[in-house]
Recover the amino acids of this structure.
């Protein structure tokens, strides 16, 4: 059974909406922030697993678009890396970025130690460390081919298994740890002010040099859409040259790094001049579409039989990572962030994205502020670091481990 390019993309889109449907039918999937593309893609991979087990025909997919979709998504992330955003968050953003970058290194060192104890490749521990926990499923699947080439068999399947477990754990643990800190130190936020306006402002993590275009007709909307696609494609194109130049030095980097750097340069140039007028909302929308289709397409092709025999070391590593995150969050992360109420809420959000995704972080912090009061600083700092800046530094950390131990 073979699916051509159009059929593969069409099936990916159908499975994506199956995932959304499953979120509505099974509410706890949404509460745990399990992404709809992951749900739909895993349904397909489990179906393929049963086909392999029972000797049924295994479908073959044309995944030609998988790579450009991945690069397009990380390119849109690159457009978010603004120096001006760092100024908005102030020292807290820079401090948290340094903390979680160091934490990413510790995640990898711990994972490597446990992997070696189980007789596994040390890079197995890195793959189940900051690659999939701090990075999430997209980063895990992006780096999987490099880990596969370095000798980690079934890297994509391992990556998605670790990322899924991390999403669940991060959503469950962040709130209790932050609540412990709040109650132990008798901290509270201002309850009367509410947090919805602050959260909305914090999540508008864009500094537009000119007013956003409000299209009033189809021609204006088409212009914005076309402009967005062309800008992203130009960044991807120029980024390919940057990646080639870096790789020519012997440094192993995923191909999306060059595109992210190119996008960041374009973003900061536009922040200073306003000449391009980047349509940030449209860029984000394009990135969300690219990521959703990429995740479904990548998960459809997973061979889950490659996880056989790796369950025990994977469970041990994830358990140890959970203990590490909880311990370091209580001390020293909470202390470094200021030991106040905002620091406690930010710590809860940090646990969310250090083990799962930024969606976990936001869900944890929303729960905390509904109970204990508003935390404007946390809703500014945690999303800036978790959604954007850590992708850059974590990629450098992962690349360093790959080049040292690959």
């Amino acid at each position: 059974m073979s699916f051509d390019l159009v059929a593969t993309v069409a099936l990916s889109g159908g499975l994506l909406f199956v995932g959304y449907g499953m979120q509505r039918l099974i509410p706890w999937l949404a509460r745990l922030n399990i992404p709809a593309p992951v749900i739909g893609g895993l349904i397909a991979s489990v179906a393929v697993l049963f086909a392999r087990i029972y000797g049924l025909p295994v479908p073959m997919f044309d995944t030609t678009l998988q790579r450009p979709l991945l690069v397009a998504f990380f390119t849109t992330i690159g457009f978010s890396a603004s120096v001006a955003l760092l100024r908005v968050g102030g020292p807290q953003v820079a401090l948290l970025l340094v903390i979680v970058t160091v934490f990413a290194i510790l995640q990898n060192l711990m994972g490597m130690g446990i992997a070696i104890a189980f007789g596994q490749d040390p890079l197995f521990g890195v793959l189940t460390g900051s690659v999939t926990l701090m990075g999430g499923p997209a980063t895990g699947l992006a780096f999987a081919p490099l880990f596969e080439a370095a000798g980690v068999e079934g890297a994509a399947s391992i990556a998605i298994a670790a990322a899924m477990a991390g999403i669940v754990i991060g959503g469950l643990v962040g709130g209790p740890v932050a609540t412990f800190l709040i109650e132990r130190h008798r901290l509270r936020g201002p309850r009367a002010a509410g947090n919805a306006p602050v959260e909305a402002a914090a999540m508008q993590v864009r500094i537009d040099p000119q007013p956003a275009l409000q299209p009033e007709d189809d021609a204006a909307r088409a212009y914005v859409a076309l402009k967005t696609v062309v800008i992203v494609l130009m960044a991807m194109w120029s980024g390919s040259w940057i990646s080639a130049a870096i790789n020519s030095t012997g440094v192993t980097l995923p191909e999306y790094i060059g595109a992210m750097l190119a996008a960041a340069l374009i973003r900061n140039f536009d922040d200073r001049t306003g000449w391009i007028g980047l349509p940030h909302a449209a860029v984000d929308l394009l990135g969300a579409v690219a990521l959703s289709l990429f995740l479904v397409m990548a998960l459809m092709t997973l061979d889950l039989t490659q996880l056989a025999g790796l369950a025990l070391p994977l469970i041990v590593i994830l358990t140890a990572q959970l203990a590490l995150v909880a311990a370091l969050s209580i001390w020293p992360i909470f202390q470094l962030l200021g030991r106040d109420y905002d620091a406690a809420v930010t710590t809860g959000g940090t646990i969310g994205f250090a083990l799962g995704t930024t969606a976990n972080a936001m869900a944890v912090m929303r729960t905390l502020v509904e109970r204990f009061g508003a935390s404007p600083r946390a809703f500014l700092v945690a999303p800036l670091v978790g959604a954007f800046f850590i992708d850059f530094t974590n990629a450098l950390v992962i690349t360093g481990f790959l080049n040292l131990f690959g």
The mean pLDDT is 89.
